[in-house]
Design goal:
sugar transport; 2 domains; 6-stranded mixed sheet; alpha+beta; D-Maltodextrin-Binding Protein, domain 2; signal; Bact_solute-bd_prot1; about 450 residues; 11 strands
């Protein structure tokens, strides 16, 4: 606890209106923030995700200290793992007491949208000032016309790989399609340098690659009308492909949670995994020559394109929301506004080596994204992402399906051979119906 008071850049122009983005000149023309007066004696509590990089958390704390110094508002920051945040957020919503602000993940705020502070004014101000939110960020922030959350970005999931291992597997460049990706993984195993992808209840890593694989083959949990369609030939095709992938994985991935692949990669046990920038940052900044050698031999790539022919990435969106029970809603909004201003974000992004992919394109000009080309793939992941409610609406059902690891468990069952792909898909569809059909 700390107590403290994959493709070209989105083009602005004809596509801006469709994407919900404003021209860069809107930054200069944006109106000044006009939030309500901070309540006398305001003190707020923030519960956020536990850091993977100490430098990221230290910068976050420094920004918060800056806010405290400027406003006099007392702020307490606690940190919990992603897995622990979800139940604590639900308890706070149900009992009407606890943290004022939750910095959580994905579509969790949609579970109790009516119990949250409307942050439309903050979101509209930031969008107007910084050229508009990415469409995927709007999907995670808005319920109808109301912003119930402010996306903080995404712990940009990209493929972390050892350059020498990819070459040993017979590839000079990283494959861009799923067929080539499978051949690469098979080659890595044959070369004694296996990949490893989480099949346990890892909020970021396991959901990231399984949802990508499902969507890449045309599968989805629900259709546009939120009807469950998971039991489909496309889902079976995804599971059959994943089963071939899993045959190349290092042993033990069934129990992996989010830190597990970091440890395996840095221990030189695996040569390929899906992760954020944290593995590279830890290795690059370490004083251990062995880890420095790993960093020098690392690079990153965006997820391959599957039979559907377009990017289908699932990214771990960090989503911040505040409870209506807070005694200091104006202080809460002012804190959120302050922390999302580019001055604070630039310092935070720099300190974390680009750990969080930006939800506002105007944040893309930070040199952290281009000074080291190995970081650049993480900058753009929100351009390639689909939300986890795809192709239906985000809401309590989509959040519950994600929180209950329905898709991850389906893949784990098929990949381990516990069930046939057909049986795994049918069982997962029944689980999803419990949430979508009540």
């Amino acid at each position: 606890m700390s107590n403290i008071t994959r493709r070209d850049l989105l083009k602005i122009g004809s596509t801006a209106a469709a994407a919900g983005l404003l021209p860069a000149r809107a930054i200069a023309a944006a109106p000044a923030w006009s939030g309500g007066a901070i309540e006398p004696g305001a003190q707020i509590r923030v519960l956020r995700w536990k850091q993977f990089l100490q430098s990221e958390f230290d910068s976050f704390v420094a920004n918060t200290n800056k806010f405290v110094e400027q406003t006099g508002v007392k702020v307490r920051v606690d940190a919990e793992s992603w897995e622990d945040l979800r139940p604590k957020a639900a308890v706070a919503a149900n009992v009407g007491a606890g943290p004022d602000i939750i910095m959580g993940t994905l579509d969790d705020p949609f579970k109790f949208a009516d119990k949250l502070i409307d942050v439309t004014d903050v979101a509209d101000y930031l969008g107007a000032k910084y050229g508009g939110w990415y469409p995927i960020a709007q999907r995670y922030g808005k319920k109808g016309d109301r912003w119930i959350a402010l996306p903080q970005g995404a712990t940009g999931g990209a493929l972390n790989y050892r350059i020498s291992a990819v070459r040993a597997a017979g590839f000079e460049t990283f494959p861009k399609d799923t067929a080539g990706f499978l051949k690469l993984c098979q080659g890595l195993k044959a070369a004694g340098k296996p990949p490893g992808f989480a099949l346990g209840h890892g909020t970021g890593d396991a959901n990231g690659w399984t949802q990508w694989c499902l969507w890449a083959h045309g599968g989805k949990v629900v259709d546009e009308n939120s009807n469950v369609v998971l039991d489909s030939p496309e889902t079976v095709a995804a599971l059959e492909y994943a089963k071939q992938l899993a045959e190349t994985f290092i042993e033990g991935v069934l129990s992996w949670q989010d830190p597990s692949n970091n440890k395996a990669f840095l221990a030189d046990q695996i040569s390929l995994t899906l992760n954020g920038i944290s593995i590279y940052t830890v290795a690059k900044t370490s004083k251990d020559p062995a880890l420095q050698a790993i960093a020098a031999d690392m690079d990153h790539a965006n997820m391959p394109i599957g039979p559907v022919g377009h990017p289908t990435e699932q990214q771990n969106i960090l989503n911040t929301y505040a409870y209506a029970y807070s005694k200091y809603p104006n202080a809460v909004k002012e804190y959120l506004r302050f922390m999302w201003e580019k001055e604070q974000v630039d310092a935070w992004e720099t300190a974390s080596n680009g750990y969080i992919a930006p939800p506002l394109p105007a944040w893309n000009d930070n040199p952290v994204w281009t000074a080291d080309p190995k970081v650049t793939p993480f900058r753009d992941v929100l351009k390639f992402a689909q939300d986890n409610g795809y192709a239906g609406a985000l809401g309590a059902a989509s959040a519950a399906v994600m929180g209950d690891f329905v898709v991850v468990d389906m893949f784990a069952s098929a990949c381990t051979g516990d069930q046939t792909p057909q049986a795994a898909a049918a069982q997962a569809a029944e689980r999803a119906k419990r949430y979508y059909q009540g």
